[in-house]
Amino acid sequence: MATSITSMNPKDREKFLEELEFPFCDEVNKYEKMAKIGQGTFGEVFKARHKKTKKIVALKKVLMENEKEGFPITALREIRILQLLKHENVVNLIEICRTKVTQLNKFKSTFYLVFDFCEHDLAGLLSNANVKFSLGEIKKVMQQLLNGLYFIHSNKILHRDMKAANVLITKSGVLKLADFGLARAFSLNKNNQPNRYTNRVVTLWYRPPELLLGERNYGPPVDMWGAGCIMAEMWTRSPIMQGNTEQHQLTLICQLCGSIVPEIWPDVEKLELYNKMELPKGQKRKVKERLKPYVKDPYACDLLDKLLTLDPSKRVDADAALNHDFFWTDPMPCELSKMLGQHGQSMFEFLAPPRRAGRPQPHPALPQPKPHPSADSSYQDRVF
Ligand SMILES: Nc1ncnc2c1ncn2[C@@H]1O[C@H](COP(=O)(O)OP(=O)(O)O)[C@@H](O)[C@H]1O
Ligand SMILES: [Mg+2]
């Protein structure tokens, strides 16, 4: 009969733990790390190579620092969702790996999510002025992004962290939605009971007005707002609304999309923070007018206008966006592989060079950001 682990003497226990086998969770040392490519809020990401097969992967470390014991619930949620979502336009999770336990790591494994490697992220590409997207190529990016969103929303998953750094692109030009660290399943309101999800989600600059106003019964439109912000960025090359605080973000939204009032957005006054936040009055909607100098194409301006709709119930969904004339008029969406082939180097937000003197001057056509305390070394404050 097997002795219980608690009744073993310390030496035997260490040996037992070190030799313990995890049949569905290989040791991460079957990969060799090549370079660090990402540092998010939730951990480090490395480019790595499988020692035997030479396959290139991305290793995302599971942060355990704040865990008293056990495997973090947030990482479990991310893994469950990634296991469900298998699609050409969603990043592919290959497996979960672990480090061997030793006395050195106090018998605690570090875990890694292992993904198919993608050569670029969209924030890295947009921060490089040598990377030029034609209109047909922008259509291809947006079509794939919306295809990914259509798929995840059809599977009742919200991404909740849409932004350019979470959109990966392979060297052959296939776009993959990534970073499901904040994603969750959603349901349509059961027996008329509204959902009560947390609204502290989505990076501030991509956060839709309903979340800023305290809505907790939200759905897929939160991701469509982010898709609109990313689409505009394809031309402006940096985030279009860079607020410093939630109040400032709402002000920037009103300056671009017009005042938030019940005539435009019925029932908005019922949202928890509607009376607590200062909402600029008398603002005209200027989405098309302000973006036209960059975007030029009228179909693109029209789709942007529909994505950046204040009232989430009127905001275009992924299906309708994919049917928009933007994708079905000349120039048609065109493969990215040829353009990307001209760039030999990987481009990631994390690796983007720090801003230099002589960067492009701010353009008066869009609401301007105030200096952002933590954004001095990435593409984010290279304001057009
Ligand atoms: N499969 C991948 N291939 C290439 N780069 C990746 C991959 N997954 C993540 N990255 C890079 O690492 C960064 C951080 O990963 P992400 O999953 O977004 O974690 P975080 O929660 O830390 O933001 C991404 O912005 C991207 O640059
Ligand atoms: Mg991320």
From TrEMBL:
The keyword Kinase applies. Coiled coil: none annotated. It is found in: Nucleus. This is Protein kinase domain-containing protein. Belongs to the protein kinase superfamily. CMGC Ser/Thr protein kinase family. CDC2/CDKX subfamily. Residues 375-384 have a biased composition (Polar residues). GO terms for cellular component: nucleus. Keywords: ATP-binding, Kinase, Nucleotide-binding, Nucleus, Serine/threonine-protein kinase, Transcription, Transcription regulation, Transferase. Residues 353-384 are annotated as: Disordered. Residues 361-372 have a biased composition (Pro residues). ATP binds at K60. GO terms for biological process: positive regulation of transcription elongation by RNA polymerase II.
